[in-house]
Amino acid sequence: MPDTLTAPPARTQVPRRHLTGPNDLDLPLIEQLLEGAAGFERAGSASGPLRGKLLATLFYEPSTRTRFSFEAAMFRLGGQVLSAENAAEASSAAKGESLEDAMRIVSGYADAIVLRHPEVGAVERAARAAEVPVISAGDGAGHHPTQALLDLYTIKKELGRLDHLRIGLAGDLRHGRTARSLALLLSRFPGNELLMISPPELRMGTDVLDQLTGARVDQTDDFRSAMEGLDVLYQTRIQAERFASPDEYERYRGVYVVSVDLMHRLPERAILMHPLPRVGEIDPLVDADPRAAYFRQARNGLWIRMAVLDWAMER
Amino acid sequence: MPDTLTAPPARTQVPRRHLTGPNDLDLPLIEQLLEGAAGFERAGSASGPLRGKLLATLFYEPSTRTRFSFEAAMFRLGGQVLSAENAAEASSAAKGESLEDAMRIVSGYADAIVLRHPEVGAVERAARAAEVPVISAGDGAGHHPTQALLDLYTIKKELGRLDHLRIGLAGDLRHGRTARSLALLLSRFPGNELLMISPPELRMGTDVLDQLTGARVDQTDDFRSAMEGLDVLYQTRIQAERFASPDEYERYRGVYVVSVDLMHRLPERAILMHPLPRVGEIDPLVDADPRAAYFRQARNGLWIRMAVLDWAMER
Amino acid sequence: MPDTLTAPPARTQVPRRHLTGPNDLDLPLIEQLLEGAAGFERAGSASGPLRGKLLATLFYEPSTRTRFSFEAAMFRLGGQVLSAENAAEASSAAKGESLEDAMRIVSGYADAIVLRHPEVGAVERAARAAEVPVISAGDGAGHHPTQALLDLYTIKKELGRLDHLRIGLAGDLRHGRTARSLALLLSRFPGNELLMISPPELRMGTDVLDQLTGARVDQTDDFRSAMEGLDVLYQTRIQAERFASPDEYERYRGVYVVSVDLMHRLPERAILMHPLPRVGEIDPLVDADPRAAYFRQARNGLWIRMAVLDWAMER
Prior knowledge:
The structure is a homotrimer of 315-residue chains.
Chain A: H1 27-43, E1 54-59, H2 64-76, E2 80-84, H3 87-90, H4 99-106, E3 112-117, H5 122-129, E4 134-139, H6 145-159, E5 166-170, H7 177-186, E6 193-197, H8 206-209, E7 216-220, H9 223-226, E8 232-235, H10 246-253, H11 260-263, E9 271-273, H12 294-313
Parallel strand pairs in A: 1-2, 1-3, 3-4, 5-6, 5-8, 6-7, 8-9
Helix pairs in contact in A: 1-6, 1-12, 2-12, 4-5, 6-7, 6-12
């Protein structure tokens, strides 16, 4: 089999396999992708299923970490990558071109597109215009579906199951796309309890809450008491600029930090997760605690993104 | 055959195959490149003729679209790419290094260089200093030869011939490098009529007009009347900042827009082209018209750039 | 052998092979790397020893030249590259993430990391946190070990030996990391004389001088007289902003320029080197002098970086 990129970009007639948000992920697909990821983690990808394929990564909002994760996945599947680290400045977007036009044109060069964009809903718009699969790498305060998938993968790997768990989602749940997407995916599994831990100003939006019919949902702003009975503490950032006044921010800032002391309150069997980057909301002293799963979690992104790219382009 | 990059950069003794502007493109070479592109479109490139070769793309003026087009072409020929999305800020240019020095040094790492630069003539200077082939990806308001080649390829594919055509070039012909390069290449074919459609302030420069001896050339600023009898309408952008006064600009802005209404005046057999990006000068409602060829045109860039890179590095 | 990237990132139990500064380079390792580079220059790398490996290049301070040199080396060894041209703006660093966290996460995606960072000591910190080899591509006014290795390679290739030489290091020796690293490596070989040529304000730091016990060291600020008896003149930049007053700068600016006239004072057998980029401190008229070795020197970076990457990832 030749290893060069020989074929023109595929023009499939069957529906394209976009992944723009949690709505594209029903339970069978979630389980298929988690199994695919586990297969890649166990065995690698000796056959190079995406040899001859080309992925375009378009980051209209820079993120070296997420971009590298997708690109490493593509290389480890045998493919090649067109990379735009800073698409907003470097592309015709700066001249006023529509996202739709950009998608149509990049569809002519690549077999799939990974898109990070600062506007909520931009990835869905892109998918409607593109002629190849579009995979979300995050859209503003909207969603981040591959992060949620790798979070599920991590929970299953660490705790053995994805149902009948008590998961605390903490921090800025209003603007945090990772917690929003994860809540939706967790609610697809039976018996889960979601404890939303946030200041009142930063509560999760009703657009998500209204869809969590499959899970029991509680809300609190008491970070310390919330630890009790958790299987997973999913910590995220709280950002100063989100508050009406500095005083308001200061009220929460010190409270929403995972310290060695707070870890005493978290059950022994639980794990601590974080989508990273962190900027103070987990004390580095906590890193040595075996329950600190966030670096293992980051690594899992590779396997999940291999599974997603393989699924999207397999035809 | 090993697929890794094994050889040191080639040091050819024969003249290097630069493509810095239309002057490098005589009729036999144009026809060779158009045929090469057609071959790649039909059959792909199973043999990976540039396997083991390394292309450097240096964009001193960012352009994700054009960069992706060249890089996709290189990957599909079996090669690899060194990519500088933002060479002006990211390179020693910011420290004051000469373009000549940069070219000499990159010649040590890559087998060919694709260069976009904001200064007219910079690509020619670069080619004189480099020790590997240099391909222009546009130099300021100068030329953009691979765009002109893909425009020719599109016209031939859509209309079946490149001679005895009436082509309207519309918009800012003074600063538009794509129209400048295309006019020169079209004049190499017999019997073509070029209708230059622009406000008086934005007429095509005499440096180009004086070389169009092989074609009949007319000029007008009446956009609507110009449609009559055209085989190709090649629309480009008009930029507000080019005019002496906002009033002047407003006089032309609304007029130089391709609307559904204007398309009624364009002959049925004609095609509408645009180098893209567009920012208002073609109404998206026109996209559905089968004569709207601009997205097909963009896709053709892949085949032409495969042909150009293969030609430049084939030895 | 499949050519795709099949294996998960290596988790070696033996000590990782970092190259963070001259302290990692004892004489046997220097000689091993110089021999490796010579082998790659002679024969290329037909076997693709790093096939299936992935290198991450993280430039927190942009440098197209150095990045291309490492990436070309990786491609020519058969590997693939994750590239961050502008890591400082494009990564979580902008959100306040620690370098240590970034290294842990990128360790999950790549088999080795090349790091350029504006802070002295940052590469050493990174190596302590990373789980894969970390190679310095320069740390502020600290060190630049692969540049020093390619300088050694150049001297040996041009002059036949690395001992009993008289080498003049000229320019801003206080902030010039290339001269600092080179001085340390040269002092490992017997019988070398180092003549430090700089304005008093820009003398080499005692942190380096105190370690140069294996060489005879002299200091001068008389550029012209220093030429006498040299085997190598290693010229570097003097930057205006380093001086207390413009007058001070002007006193030295004109003096520290290598002109055709100055070359008359340099011995016939000597070579002129420069880490490049240059911005006036070598007159381009000097380029035609066969003793001007700086472009040959830049090219040697490819072979040395192939040797360093191969050594770091060979297991």
